Amino acid sequence: MTTLTAAGEEIIPLTFGGLAYEGRIVHRPGARLAPVVLVGGAFQTKAGWGRVEQGFLAEATVITMDLPGGGDADRLPPECGFDFLTGALDHLLTSVAPGPVNVFGASYGSAVAYRWAQLHPERCARLLLFGTMAQMTEHVRGVLQRSLDLAAQGRHEEFVGHVLDGLVCLEPDAAIARRNVVIRCLTSMLNNMTADELDKYRDNTTRLLDYTGDPEGEPATVPILVATGEYDPLTTPLLSRAAAARCGDARFTTIKGADHMAHLERPAEVVDLAVRFFDGRPLGGLDYCGPIEYFGRTGRLATVPPGRVPER
After folding, report:
1. HEC profile for the chain?
2. Residue 248: its pLDDT value, please?
3. Which of 88, 140, 238, 279 is the most buried (most CB within 10 A)?
4. Distance CA 152, CA 130 (A)
5. Measured CA distances, 219 to 200, 210, 228, 243 (Å)
């Protein structure tokens, strides 16, 4: 049964594959854009999008979720892969937004968002992937495995420091917006993880380590924007750019003064870039972005001059 919270959120309880999970809608009367669907990363919950959600609500209804394995949803066994999560996402969107939507997939959630757009191109208007990669490198694999080892050994202080080091660029010469604030928030969140949250982190990280990063079938045909922070230490610009190069119709850029946590460090800029893309407006010449690179259907690369972007 759908419930309406005091904050005006509509919470939708669902079951998929025998597991309980929840969708959440914040309606924007007179919305100018199609609904924006936010598919979050490993530590992202349905009500935790903060300034990013508020920015999108100026233009569109916003749909968030706790898919199985996250937030208030049931745990998802590691052997259940990303196709299960894609199915759960589709189950939610079939219920609440059967028409075209704009999808924003971040980090862990980018694999789910991409696969859904690949399978349902007629229902995905545009797709933005933030902090993603096409294939997992040995370095990233080592970072993730080390976090699992520290968690299993009960070395929580080291676990917190290691996770932070993987998400935030700590180089003193890197000009990261709001870095100290973001570090304090992440440290507090990690230090206050419940046993259930830690179990879900282990499950999700194991699932990610088992993920091949190569969905079956032809590349997604919808317009795609791949972006990440210029200092991202995990899904680096090089890895994210390589992911864009494997898409059929993709643009790639970086957010200046940000790393993997760009949505916390530069939320207004992330929203502005996303809204411009979802609206089909030019992306060139934005002072908070690096150059816009376009990977067309022929695989050729073009750097887009300021004020121009090739459209589909």
Report:
1. CCEECCCCCEEEEEEECCEEEEEEEECCCCCCCCCEEEECCCCCCCCCCHHHHHHHHCCCCEEEEECCCCCCCCCCCCCCCHHHHHHHHHHHHHHHCCCCEEEEEECHHHHHHHHHHHHCHHHEEEEEEECCCCCCCHHHHHHHHHHHHHHHCCCHHHHHHHHHHHHCCCCCCCCCCCHHHHHHHHHHHHHCCCHHHHHHHHHHHHHHHHCCCCCCCCCCCCCEEEEEECCCCCCCHHHHHHHHHCCCCEEEEEECCCCCCHHHHCHHHHHHHHHHHHCCCCCCCCCCECCEEEECCCCCEEEECCCCCCCC
2. 87
3. 88
4. 29
5. 30, 21, 20, 11
Whole-angstrom distance, CA of residue 10 vs CA of residue 24: 6
Strand partners, 129: 105, 226
| Cα–chain center distance at 188 | 21
Burial zone of 111 (CB within 10 Å; 0-12 exposed, 13-18 middle, 19+ buried) = buried
Longest distance between any two alpha carbons in the chain, whole Å: 52
**Residues 236, 185 contacting (CB under 8 angstroms):** no
Tokens at 30, concatenated: 């007179």
Q: What is the pTM of this model?
A: 0.92
